Structure formats: structure tokens, C-alpha cells
Amino acid sequence: MDHPLRVAVADADADGLLHLRDLMRHLGHEVVAEASSGPELVEQCRAAQPDLVITEVTLAGLDGLAAAEEIDREWDVPVVIVSARDDDKQLERAASSCVASYLVKPVRDADLKAAIAVALPRFARQHELGHEVEGLRRDLEDCKQAERVSGALAERLGVRDEEAVRAVENVIDRWARL
Predict the structure, then answer these.
(1) Domain residue spans in the chain?
(2) CA 57 – CA 84 distance, rounded (Å)
């Protein structure tokens, strides 16, 4: 990592919050938001727009996973979940959500460093793939529209579909050269 990250941390326990803040600072990152509840975390993230969110699962108001999902609906940011328990239901929820990494307490700096090192490029790749999928959807819609146009043209002119497709492609090529 070539620059410090701007990080939001959340834990309902004051000692846990202090521990996360100290870990992030020890790793060379800037803590730009701290929260002890889910709604507070969401608000802090809206204000600070961090590069990374690290949150304990057990938060008042909204648990860490629900807060992460709400944050994800508003903007893209990787989330690392921290939990006191190795709970299968929580792991399942985390795996099917926007969570980039999951750690079980006690969290050491080496654990967090590794989780961040894996989460950031994985998150970036997922974000990139999302944009590719959106582009492919647009391309597919364009193809469907072109097929409808060429079908209507073939029917109106009384020509085969292939001839109509060529005619549409020629028009598109001419427009592209303008």
C-alpha cells in the first residue's frame, strides 16, 4: 500500500474501539470516523467518506453487517467485519453481502494488515467487474434494439433479415464516421 487509508472504525465496546483505532494508526492509516452504533457509523461514513470501514458486528441500532449494507447502497467502500464469535450465520450473511473481509477477535495488527491487503484489491476487482457487467448490459440492450430495427426494416422492405442487418450496419458505420 503506497498511501495511508482514511478509515472509519466502529465497536460498541469502548476498549474495542480504542483497539481498532490504535491498530489502524500503528499500520499507518488515518482514522477519520469512530462510531459505537450502527446508525452512528452510517452517519460518520456519510460525512467522512472513508476509504475503508472496519466494524464490529455487534452494534446497537443496526448491527455491523446491516450498517455495511446501508453504507454500500450509498457509495462503494470496502468493509472489514470484526466479530467476537466464529458464527456460521454471521459468516453466511457476510459472504452474501458487500463485506470484503471478516476477522474473529482478538484482532492483531498482522491479521488486520493481511485482511486489508486482500480486501482492497478484491474490492477493486469486484467494483471493476460491476462496471463491466453494466457495460455488457447496455451493449446487450443496444443489440436487442438493433435486432428490432433490422427486423422491422426487413419486414417493411420485404427483404431477408441478413440484408436488413447489413443496411443497419452500414447506417451505423456512416454515423460513426461523422
Answers:
(1) 6-126, 132-177
(2) 8
